[in-house]
Design goal:
With 116 residues, the chain is of the alpha+beta class. Helices cover 40% and strands 46% of the residues.
């Protein structure tokens, strides 16, 4: 996975200023997620998750700015790998759950259509 972005760093009063582009890359990640399928109140399929984990073995942050401030920010962001993993885990868990629900609903509806 890769995240590309533009950035701007500043302070008030303006002691610090930098701007440029950046990227965060994640390689060789393990993702695990447990899904639970239940019948909702109206008979709808509900999908929930628990025990979500991600482990990134290769994580790289690159900031290309106008000053050395971007290099300091790059080092700081690299140090926040655990925080980044936690946020990425939540994002992926939500997305994977939504995708799993759509696929399972499609399979269930296909099965119902064939039996009717």
């Amino acid at each position: 996975m890769a995240f590309d972005f533009d950035f701007k760093i500043w302070s008030e009063p303006e002691w610090l200023h930098d701007a440029g582009t950046g990227s965060i890359s994640v390689f060789n990640a393990d993702i695990s997620l447990s899904l639970s399928l239940t019948k909702g109140e109206v008979g709808q399929l509900e999908v929930s998750y628990w025990d979500e984990k991600i482990h990134t073995r290769d994580y790289e942050v690159i900031l290309d700015g106008e000053t050395e401030l971007s290099k300091a920010a790059q080092q700081m962001m690299t140090s926040f790998k655990v925080f980044f993993e936690e946020e990425l885990t939540l994002l992926l868990a939500n997305r994977l759950t939504t995708t799993a629900k759509k696929v399972l609903e499609g399979k269930v509806m296909t099965k119902i259509d064939k039996t009717e």
